[in-house]
Amino acid sequence: MEETNIKTNSMKAWLLAARPKTLSGAAVPVMIGLSLAYSDARFYVDGAFNWIAAILCMLFAFAMQIDANFINDFYDFVNGTDDAETRLGPRRACAQGWVTLDAMKKAIALTTCLACVIGLPLAYYGGLEMIAVGVACVVFAFLYTTFFSYQGLGDLLVLVFFGLIPVCCTYYIQLHTMTWEVFLASMACGLVIDALLIVNNFRDRDNDRLAGKNTIIVKLGPDAGLQLYLGVGIGAIILGGTFWQHGHPLASLLPIIYLLLHLFTFLKMKHIYQGKALNLCLGETARNIFIYGLCVSLGILLL
Predict the structure, then answer these.
(1) 189 to each of 58, 131, 132, how far by Cα in Å?
(2) Against a cut of 0.90, is the pTM above it?
(3) Cα separation of 271 and 165, whole Å?
(4) pLDDT in the model for residue 91
(5) CA-closest candidate to residue 35, choices 295, 259, 256, 289
(6) pLDDT tens by residue, 173-222
(7) Enclosing H/E stretch for 244
């Protein structure tokens, strides 16, 4: 449903610009990292798990996601990738005139500073290396939209910044160690969340090609893109076998629910193939990601 009569720079305009539905993608890696840390904390004499650090990790993830959304909204409009007339995906604030460019610049500065303020105390819990991680998150939030997404490297960044870094660093902040289970879980999480980028780029492939945005779908073609979408879901389940090996069988079994939903979305995506109707698959993919996070987290905590 299209939004109309949005007052410029209003609260509703900013809410739409923040894209709250994308916060599930930010929450899921932290959920998985915290679940693994909470489960493993029982092996430590001091109890190890720190709730303040856990809350800060989640708030930092949310702040960075909103910041990245603002950056993406601003630069895609400035670079001509977003057009109010030709855009197929959900409407963007700058392109629609809901938020002025000057106001968006200030919002980007504010959310970047807010993320830094939230993230800085994590250096106390996880060590000074967390500062370097935080700086990398901020820098690549800008580089993703301005460079990497145009070179077909967006999927790689998703694996790193929605898989490896949030899952592993969340765990490390709690227990100051790392395991193969956590690493493989982070890669599985990154694959699941990459499905959201794949369906987004699959929908926008023609516009992206015209704008010179060489996403992996533009490079490989739509049919290969469909197989890639299917493959990341299956790959995540295969990697999830590590949970069974490390004493969390439910964390391997419950995500089969996610896989079934992922398969249904894949078939729907294959049937629709192009156009705005693919936004339905985008919404379903976001839902599937959250269900994956819940299934894995519950599977870890229940056993």
Answers:
(1) 16, 23, 22
(2) yes
(3) 35
(4) 75
(5) 295
(6) 999 999 999 999 999 999 999 999 999 999 999 988 888 889 999 999 99
(7) helix 241-245
